[in-house]
Amino acid sequence: MTRRTISYAAAGLLLSSALLMGAHPGHEYHIEGTVTKMRAPHFEVKDAKGNTESFMIVPGTEVSVNNSRATAADIAVGVQAEVDGVENDRGIVEAKKVRLTR
Question: CA separation (Å) from 27 to 1, 16, 18, 84, 90?
Answer without folding.
Answer: 39, 20, 17, 11, 12
